[in-house]
Amino acid sequence: MQDSMRHDEKDRESELEQLRFAGGSRGGRSRLSESRYHTPIPGHAEQSQSMANNEQYEARSKASESERQLEAERRKTLKYEEKIRRRKARGSVLSALLTPKTIPIVLVGLAILITLGVLFLPGALQGDVSNEYLSSHQLERAIGVDRLSSARYVYNGIAEVRDEGGNVTQRIYYSGTVRAGVDMSDIEFEIDNERMTVMPLIPEITVSEPSIDESSFDYMPSNPSLELNEIIQLCKADATSEINRQGEIYETAESNLRMTIEGLTLPLIENTNYELIWPGELDGMGPSTSESNVDESGGAGQ
Amino acid sequence: MNARGHVRLSLISLLAIMFIFASMAGCSPSTESPDEKPEFSNAGYICELSTLEVYYHNVARAEHEAVGPFNHGYKRMWFEYSGVVEIGIDFSKVSISEPDASNVVTVALPQAEILDVDVAEDSITEPAIETGFLTDFTTEEKTDALSSAQESMRQSADQDETLKHQARERARTMLESYITNVGNLVGETYSVVWVDV
């Protein structure tokens, strides 16, 4: 390529010389043509001079254009030569670098670079690993502890027997216990990955039939005309109706259950930057555009 | 720049890049290594959450035997009331060791105790009264009966070993679950050994 560029330069130089020669001669014609064909005609001198000037002008324009082209070619050649020179210089650098002594060092350095890159770049680019998503399954496994699902409560009460007029004719003191709780496998979790919230959905608290201690009965007035099984039925019915009417045992059971769920899921939720919220706390948070992740009731448990 | 200069520059660049990579390794997200000690910093909060709220519905009873003819002096009074007793573990008495070489965590756990008693005043019913001849309950006696309701409920809960055992088991289960989950997060499987305090 270098040779062809040099040929181009020579061609242009010879062309330029020709143009210069042509621009300097009279009328721009060769002397031979002048001597053979030119016959001065009286009265045509000015016309001939004008033509000669025009030709001279054209020749000079062409010469300038050729000079510009030649200059551009020269610059291009110089640039190319500089590139070749640098390439040769780099080659000499690499030759100096890759000596038998330095090759092992360079290879070891490259190996270390590659190892570090493979080991640590993906982790560095990954970002905060603690921002992983939770799944309902993880949470359901964490709370699958049956023995925390319910609690026993003491219920001592007074059952009343009324006559047809509604007057109390007999009171019976009794002592009993009742269990309240839920099946932990029925608890579901609603996870909002946009808001980073977890909301446990607690099923209805169930209260077992009260267990009455027959040895605890006391009567006012004493010695009622009632059979023992009638007394037990009265007491159970009284306990059940009072529990359902008052509702406090449900509130206490739910409070215990919430604390249980919070305690069992604390490490998981803390580690993933989620927030545990309860139904009712969502008011004012606005609609979420993400789909909630509510699993079907599944076999949770440890 | 001559060839030697280029060699020097190349080696310096290589070292700089290695240094940058090594720095990025140090800045990579900290996935906890197995050598990192776990923190049970939330154990106190877990104990708090394990506190059992026990709903009580009780009957206060006051009774006086007859001292004269026609049952004079005889009187009985019953009334119902309800409240909540908190039973739990005092965390200041709990100690949790670091995992040993076998990944065993030793937890010293005290017995459950009554932490609080709260009687709901609006739950107290009209007393049912039975009296003998020319006998009645005085206002002071009624007041005494009402004021002793709270103490009665505390004593009742304190004597309920089943309930206290239930509360302690609750604390044990939640602490064990917490310790196990913390271990899982650092890639270890912890087992818990319990010591009574």
Key features of this structure:
heterodimer, A: 302 residues, alpha+beta, 2 domains, four-stranded antiparallel β-sheet, three-stranded mixed β-sheet, 7 helices, rod-shaped, disordered C terminus, B: 197 residues
Report on this model:
The complex is a heterodimer of chains A (302) and B (197). Chain A is α+β, with helices and mostly antiparallel strands. Chain A folds into two domains: 2-93; 136-276, no CATH class. Helices cover 52% and strands 17% of the residues of chain A. In chain A, the strands form two sheets. In chain A, strands 1, 2, 5 and 6 form a four-stranded antiparallel beta sheet that branches. Chain A has a three-stranded mixed beta sheet with strand order 3-4-7, with helices on one face. The longest helix of chain A has 53 residues, at 45-97. Chain A starts with a helix and ends in a 26-residue tail after the last strand. By secondary structure, chain B is α+β, with helices and mostly antiparallel strands. Chain B has one domain. Helices cover 39% and strands 27% of the residues of chain B. Chain B contains four helices and seven strands; from the N terminus they run ααββββββααβ. In chain B, the strands form two sheets. In chain B, strands 1, 2, 5 and 6 form a four-stranded antiparallel beta sheet that branches. In chain B, strands 3-4-7 form a three-stranded mixed beta sheet, covered by helices on one side. The model of chain B is unreliable at 28-35 (pLDDT under 50). The chains are: A alpha+beta (302), B alpha+beta (197). The interface between A and B is large, with 60 and 58 residues.
